[in-house]
Specification:
single chain; mainly alpha; Four Helix Bundle (Hemerythrin (Met), subunit A); 2 domains
Amino acid sequence: MINWRLTIFIFLVIFVAVILAFFLFLKDNDNCSYLLTLVGTYVSIFALVVTLIQVRNLEKTAVTVKAAADSAKEAVEKVMDISSIAIYISYLRFVKECLTNEKYELARIRLQDIKDFLPRVRHISGLAYSDNEFRSVITGIEEILTSLDDEINNVNRVDISSITRNIEKVATFLDTIENQLKA
């Protein structure tokens, strides 16, 4: 920021120096219009310099504010991602409960929600997981959905142990992601 006392002091010193120089070098008192022109020019140039300094300081402030805003935005996104993952982990618990109670339609709806959410995980930066792990989780959910569709359509009976293993694989993956975000 500008030290305004120092700025005013410099302005006054140079202003007095300009006026003294005018009277020392131009002895003719009829040149009042020259003095006014000189003083006006000096004030304009000084104001321009102060304005440029303020603009430069404002640019620095804008960069600092932008960095703080970006940091805050990342923090909010991180909290939102953690919250979303926690919700989908609770969906997995709900799916297990639905399977126990043979409410396959509800289980299928929640699993479809989880499947639809997982591609968002790819866009969360800073996560460490392999593409094979991600594909394995997607494949596991698709297998569960196929099993549930078969049960709902009375094609095949649901293999609960296989579904439970796949649900645990998905839950472990989401827990890992959640822990990485919390770290």
